[in-house]
Every structure is written in C-alpha cells, then in structure tokens.
Here is the input.
Amino acid sequence: MSTAARVAPRAFLVVVAYLGFVSLALPDVAHGVAWPFVRDAFALPQSGLGLIMAGTAAGFFVSSFFAGRLLAALGVGRLLAGSTGLVAAALAGIALAPAFPVFLACAPLVGLGSGAIDSGLNAYAAKRFSPRHMNWLHAAFGFGAACGPFLMTGALLATGSWRLGYGLIALIMGAMALLFLTTRGAWRADAGGPIAAGEGHAPARVSTGAALRHPVVRLQIAMFCVYVGVEYGAGLWIFTVLSEGRGLSVELAGAMAGLYWAGLFVGRVGFGLFAERLGEDRSVRLGLGGMVVGAAAFAFAPTWLALPGVILIGLACAPVFPMLMSRTPARLGEALAAHAIGFQVSAAMLGGVLFPALGGVLADAFGVGAVPLMVLAAALTLVWLNTILERRTR
Here is the structure.
C-alpha cells in the first residue's frame, strides 16, 4: 500500500498510539536506575541484572514472534488492552515482590506484554500512519526512554525505595490498559484488514510457517536484526570506547553517549517533518549512508572527527527502523504484514542482545577499538541487504 493510499487514522487514536509508545519504554529503562537498590535489597551479585533482562527478552521474543496469530485471534484493540494489562500486573508483582525469585518470575511477563504491545502498535501504524507520524511514533518511544530514569530517580529520592518507582509505572500501564480497553471499538473500526482479523474483516490468512519462509520476510528479518545491532551496539559501547580506547574524560565520554541517544530522538522528530517529501525508501538510503560515514569516523578518524561521527550515527539511525516498518505492508501485502511485523520486532530484540554481546567478545579478544569496526561492518551489511531488498520489491 502506498503512502498516498493509506487511510488516515482517527486523530485521537494517533494520540493514544503515541502515549502507548511512551509508556512502552518505561519498564526496561527503569531497571538501570533501580538495579543497585534491588541488588542490595535481595543481596544479589551484579549478574542478577542479566537474569532479569534475559527473562524480559525471552518473553518479548515469544509474543512478538507470534504477533500475527495474536492479532488474528484478538484484533489490535483487545491485544493492546490485554497486553498492557499484563505488563501492569507484572510490574505490580515486581513492586510487591517479597523475594528475588518472585521479581524474576515477573520479568518474562513484562516481556510477553511488551512484545505484543510493540508488535500491535507497529502493525496498526504501518498500515495507517504516514511516514511523518511513523517517525514521530518511534520518537515517542525515545521520549519515554528519557522519562523512565527520571521517574525512578524521583521515586528513590522521595522514599528511598525502588518499589514506589515500579508501582508508579504499573499505575501508568494500568491507565493505558483502561484507555486501550475503552477505545477497543474505535481500533476495530479504524483498523480493518489484517489488523482487525478475528473481528469480522479478515482476509485470507497466512500461516506463521508460510510467512517465515517468504524470501522478502527473511530479508527484512535480517535487516531489523542487524539495524538494532548497530543502534544498540554503538549506543551501549560508546562510553567505553571513548573513555578507555580514546582516553576521553568520564564527563566527555558520558556526554557523547547522551548526545548519541539525543541524536536518535531529534533525528526522528526531524525526519518526520520531511519523510513524506523524501519517501520511505530514500529516507532509509540516506540513513544507511549516514550510518556508514559516522561509523567510519568512529572507527578510523582522529578524535576530533570521531566525536561528530558518533552523533551522526545516532542521527542517521533515526529513520531506518520506522521507515522499514512503514513499508512492510506495501512490500508484502496485507495477508503477510502482521506476521512479518511481529517477526521484525522479534529480530530487533535479538539484534539488540547479540551485537552488544559480540562487542564484548571482540573487546576482550582485540581491545575496545574492535567495537567501532563491528559497527561499521554491520552498517555496510545493512546497505547490502537494503540494496537486495529494494531490487526484489520494486
């Protein structure tokens, strides 16, 4: 479906979708601030945080992988309401957990709900949102990611307890669940097509296995995995590479890491202003080209050029994820789109776990200077994959 052929969503559903993406970012980023206090409360080793994140990632991967089936069975409105309610209940369980095993058992439930929310909102937005709003939707996630640490920090300063922070996020997610529940009829009426399958308007269904065997689906899975590998592989290693590898002060290296993520947010807002004029495919090509230039500067240039390169990577990453997602229905057709979007969200989660871990292996073996080379190699791989994808879907 072309951009021009999309039917505009109702304005209030656009607002609800934005709020949904802001809230989606809150739970994961709060862990980083809360962890030292959770660790002390339960007398845990540092490795305990890895268990929490692994449990969350496993739940996220499962629900997003089967998002096509969930959307067919429930429709987007009920899926969003139920999944957000599950996240709220799991966060309440974390806030009240009397022991770490209870805390840990709730983590996969947060992931299950979050994966379904992410896939459901992306599936709806890919069909209904213009490129401008698709960029801004993902910018809303970045805004939520910035708000989460402040919310948890405020709770800690006010009470000294991490439990209040998780409790507040649970309340926010509970309010979102009620909002999705009360608007479920509007989602059903507005979505139509495959997004509302199971609610009276389903086209011919495609099985999960058949969708996974489609060559273009596989190409896009690879692209989302590698793209998020670049985004997270660069973002999570910038501080270490600049401070230990380039000898920058803690303050400057930390500022550069912050500017990288700020560049991603600002870039999505900015690309949203021009995305409809540029078009999805051109926006992706511009983003990938900028990623290669920025990664090359990060890897090879003197420090005074490497620092702008870091910011450029963040800015250039901005349009790639939302514009690839936006093009999915047009490239694959409505019957495959819901499955493919779920696979893509799963692949994104996988890339966000694998590439930072690979960076650690390379840093141990060859020094932290190997990490920017990994980022550059991944960016070049994305250019190659995108060239093949565009040729196959012209």
Observations:
- The CA atoms of residues 146 and 236 lie 15 Å apart.
